[in-house]
């Protein structure tokens, strides 16, 4: 008689193989902190700009928008994909004590992307009619907790309801 693997064990094995943790998946994969240059706890200069610079090497050449462009950081004219690059330091005392702050932060970013209509800066203009897809590329520390992952999953679902693809990348 062949033994049958319990369903929960199969699910766990699948989660481990896919990179899921606590039912959440880092949809943008994982990347080494040294590769991105991100320094958690260092604000826009230590987190945000290095993340944008890293994404600039991963996204189509020429898609980066001017610094301080409203809402989006990249726009691929060929595909119509507008990308907002964000970092979220989940290791702060406030976000550890109150994981719902993770959702609130992501929701604000999602709403901004969903409500974007038009912006122009330094001779570059992007309008809603040019955009075929909107995405939020978020870098988070590897040490993100289970409770925070629950909030991230909520935000991913919320993003889907607003037509925004939320991609989470764990930074090791």
UniProtKB/TrEMBL annotation:
Superkingdom of the organism of origin: Bacteria
CdiA toxin EC869-like domain boundaries: 47-169
Coiled coil: none
Lineage: Bacteria, Pseudomonadati, Pseudomonadota, Gammaproteobacteria, Pseudomonadales
Organism from which the protein derives: Pseudomonas putida (Arthrobacter siderocapsulatus)
Name the record gives this protein: CdiA toxin EC869-like domain-containing protein
Matches recorded under InterPro entries: CdiA_EC869-like (IPR033799)
GO molecular function, one term: deoxyribonuclease I activity
Pfam family, one: CDI_toxin_EC869_like
């Amino acid at each position: 008689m062949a033994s049958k693997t319990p369903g929960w064990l199969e699910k766990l094995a699948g989660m481990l193989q896919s990179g899921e943790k606590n039912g959440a998946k880092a949809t943008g994969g994982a990347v080494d902190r040294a590769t991105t240059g991100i320094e958690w706890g260092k604000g826009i200069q230590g987190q945000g700009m290095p993340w944008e610079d890293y994404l600039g090497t991963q996204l189509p050449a020429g898609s980066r928008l001017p610094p301080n462009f409203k809402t989006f950081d990249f726009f691929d004219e060929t595909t119509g994909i507008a990308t907002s690059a964000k970092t979220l330091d989940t290791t702060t005392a406030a976000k550890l004590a109150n994981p719902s702050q993770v959702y609130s932060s992501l929701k604000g970013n999602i709403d901004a992307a969903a409500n974007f209509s038009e912006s122009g800066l330094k001779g570059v203009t992007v309008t809603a009619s040019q955009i075929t897809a909107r995405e939020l590329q978020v870098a988070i520390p590897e040490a993100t907790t289970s409770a925070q992952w629950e909030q991230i999953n909520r935000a991913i679902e919320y993003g889907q309801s607003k037509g925004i693809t939320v991609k989470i990348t764990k930074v090791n």
